[in-house]
């Protein structure tokens, strides 16, 4: 019995376009999130921009205050990891269009939603090339 070498590209390759643009995740027939990969350029750019005011503190070995660190993390999720949504009710209970400010308010109120978005954005298989996956079972 011979084992063929594992093709790491089949296991780990992702579709760069879906990582950068985001992939729709349906939560119900009326509600969906468009989530980018955590390493997408929009995500890293926003994180770097929000961290700029704290660069001097970090250089001298100080830590960012916990409340500011949490705020930065939520703003990155709201403004870059989440790229869009459909059928989402805001804090007021009304359906709201996606905006970073609205997403921030909802993520702040619903930490489990923030965890869901983070987990989806970190899982490489969520951004695999769908045409490759379709042929995988053949």
Structure, described:
With 138 residues, the chain is an alpha+beta fold. The chain has one domain (19-129). The chain has helices at residues 8-12, 16-21, 41-51, 55-59, 66-81, 100-109, 111-122, 130-136; strands at residues 23-26, 32-35, 82-86, 88-89, 95-96. It has a 3-stranded antiparallel beta sheet. The longest helix is centred in the middle third of the chain and has 16 residues, at 66-81. It is flat, with a radius of gyration of 18 Å. The relative contact order is 0.17.
Count of spatially separate domains:
1
Helix/strand order:
HHEEHHHEEEHHH
Shape from CA axes? Answer: flat
Secondary-structure-derived class: alpha+beta
| Strand neighbour order, sheet with most strands | 1-2-3
**Average of per-residue pLDDT values:** 89
Q: If you compute it from the alpha carbons, what radius of gyration comes out, rounded to the nearest whole angstrom?
A: 18 Å
Extract low-pLDDT stretches: 133-138
What oligomeric state do these chains adopt?
Answer: single chain
> What distance separates the N and C termini?
22 Å
Q: In what range is the share of β-strand residues?
A: 5-15%
Tally of DSSP β-strands: 5
Number of helices: 8
Gist of the model:
This protein is α+β, with helices and mostly antiparallel strands and 138 residues long. Helices cover 52% and strands 12% of the residues.
List the defining traits of the structure above.
single chain; 138 residues; alpha+beta; three-stranded antiparallel sheet; two-stranded antiparallel sheet; 8 helices; 52% helix; flat
């Amino acid at each position: 019995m011979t084992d063929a070498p594992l093709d790491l590209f089949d296991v780990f390759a992702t579709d760069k376009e879906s990582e950068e643009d985001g992939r729709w995740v349906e939560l119900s027939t009326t509600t969906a999130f468009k989530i980018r990969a955590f390493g997408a350029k929009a995500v890293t750019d926003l994180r770097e921009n929000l961290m700029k005011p704290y660069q001097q503190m970090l250089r001298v070995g100080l830590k960012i205050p916990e409340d500011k660190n949490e705020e930065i993390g939520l703003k990155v999720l709201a403004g870059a990891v989440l790229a869009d949504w459909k059928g989402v009710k805001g804090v007021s209970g009304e359906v709201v269009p996606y905006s970073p400010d609205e997403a921030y308010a909802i993520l702040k109120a619903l930490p489990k939603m923030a965890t869901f978005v983070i987990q989806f954005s970190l899982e490489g298989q969520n951004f695999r090339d769908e045409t490759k996956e379709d042929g995988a079972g053949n």
